Structure formats: structure tokens, C-alpha cells
Amino acid sequence: MAKKNTPFQIVWISGLSGSGKTTAIKALEDIGYFCIDNLPIILLPTFINLIKNSKLDINKIGLVVDIREKEFLKDAKKVLAQIKNLNATLRIFFLESSDDALITRFKTTRRQHPLAPTGKIIDGIQLERENLSFLKEMSDQIIDTSNLSIHELRKRIINTFAQEDSQPAMSLTFLSFGFKYGLPAELDLLFDVRFLPNPFFVETLKNLTGLDESVKRFVLNNSVAKEFLSHVEGFLKFLIPQYHEEGKAYLTIGIGCTGGVHRSVAIARELKDRFLKNLKGSSILIRDEFRDVG
Asked: Using CA atoms, how far apart are residues 72 and 42, in angstroms rounded to an integer?
């Protein structure tokens, strides 16, 4: 439970439609903020009080409040005054882009501008700039996303709010599965271990799984398996930081064999154990599809 004397940190993301507010709020969520999109700003003080009086361990809140609020935005100054009395700090980040960049984004996604659903995109952009000009003046920081990619904007938000040593570590899942059941949809990387000797054809091991010590020894003590694990471990040690740098928070690594019961289970667990030692602070999980399919 958050201590009542701990100040609430509130980050209000606003700005022009198409400027990257969704990317920004997702980045805040990845570094531990409780995020809400499109909360009526007038309800923010009530929301803070509800959290303070609950058992929820929340003291960092991220909000997207933009032109969709329309009438509620006129209450912004009054709400800011109320927040000062709630032991909370609020920072407003305003995202904007050039007209050309916004027009290109709307055309690429084939979306209508919210203020010009039947008219020209540029008319909606100009009207939104006018309506949000007061909020831009109130903001603590203005970010021009005209030349920023999604990944660059995400990194900028994270670097603003998280110290280098507290940035979110990547969450890894090692998933063992059987090719005869098809490829799991959630895979990011895939390693096929059907080249290894199959315990299924050893009578004493056939009815066991890669969770059993005798099967693990059979699979892992093989010289080819040892060399394979060494190569995969080195490959993943190189690859994981590259994915993380590009803003990927979750990585699912599939290890597949024929039935998903023996070799893939043993190899996936060995890789998990190795990375538990190498990636301190990361979330490292294991899943076995044979348990899911019975």
C-alpha cells in the first residue's frame, strides 16, 4: 500500500492528434506508471483521493488528456490548483508535430482527424492547435515528434522519467512446444531441436518428460546439445540487448521438438537457468505447451 505521505507523481500527456500520445503513455506504463487514457480531467482529484484511501500500491500516474475532453479541458487550471493540496506533483508534457508530418500520419493510417471528420485534415489540425494553445503554454515540456520514430519517442519518454539503472528489463519467456501441434502464435524467436537424439525412442524414457532427471541427462549430456546451447546462449546474449534498445519489452523464445515433451522441455529449462544467472533483475519465465494441451 502506498504511504499516504508519499507524493503522487502525475504525468499528463497531451498534444495534437497524431503526435504520438499513445506511444508516450505506453512507455510510461512500461516503467511502472498506472496509466489511464482519456480520463476527464475534472475527475482527477477524486481519482487521487480514491487511490489514497484504498490498499492499492499506486503513486505514479500517467494520463492522456487531449482534445477529446473538449468541455472538460476548460477546468484544467482549477484542477491544477486542487492537485497542489493533494500532496501530488503534476507535470504536463505536450506533444506536437509539423503540419506535414501530421497529414502524412493521418493519410498513412487512413484516420479522420477528430476535429475534421468530413473536411480537410489541415483544417482539423489548425483548429486543434488553436483549442490547445492554452495547454501548450501551461506545459512543463514540449516535445516535437515530427522527426521522431515510435522507438525514438519511447526512448525519450523513458529516459526522461527513469534513471538508467531503473529502466525496465526485458521480460523473457522460454516456450517449449511440439511441431506436430503447429507453431505457437506468440513466438518472437524459434529454435528447432529435432536434430537431437529423441528420448521417445528409448523405452525407459518414452513415457517421461523433459522435467524428469533421466530425460534431462539424456538430452543435455549429448555433445551436440552442449555445443548448440553454447551457440544459442551467445546468440541471445547479443540479441536481447538489441531488442531492448529498440523498445521491445517482452520476448518469447520458442524451443520446438516433434511432440514438445522431451527435448524442447529440457533445452528450454536449461536456457532459462543460464539466463537467470546472466540477466539479473529480468523477468524470466518458462512455459510448456504439453501441459496446456494435456
From this structure: 6
Write the pLDDT tens digit of every residue in 228-244.
999 999 999 999 888 87
How far, in Å, CA of 63 to CA of 14, rounded? 8
The C-alpha cell at 214 is 533421466
84-115 residues labelled b (16+ CB within 10 A) or e (exposed): eebebebebbbbbbeeebbbebbeeeeeebeb
- With beta carbons less than 8 A apart as the criterion, state whether 275 and 172 touch: yes
What CATH fold (topology level) applies to the domain 8-166?
Rossmann fold (3.40.50)
Question: What pLDDT score does 28 carry?
Answer: 92
Closest Cα partner for 211 from 162, 263, 157? 263
Q: Dihedral, CA atoms, 216, 218, 219, 221, nearest 10 degrees?
A: 100
Question: What is the model's pLDDT at position 69?
Answer: 67
Residue ranges, comma separated, of all CATH 3.40.50.300 domains in the chain are 8-166
Helix (H, G, I), strand (E, B) or coil at 181: helix
What confidence score (pLDDT) does residue 231 get? Answer: 97
Q: Would the pTM of this model clear 0.85, i.e. be above it?
A: no
- The dihedral sign for the CA sequence 59, 90, 13, 243: negative
Instruction: Single out the residue of 85, 97, 91, 166 nearest to residue 125, CA to CA.
Output: 97
Q: What angle do CA 153, 154, 158 make, to 5 degrees?
A: 120
Which stretches of the chain score pLDDT less than 50?
Answer: 1-3, 164-165, 293-294
Kindly calculate the radius of gyration of the chain based on its CA atoms and give it in whole angstroms: 25
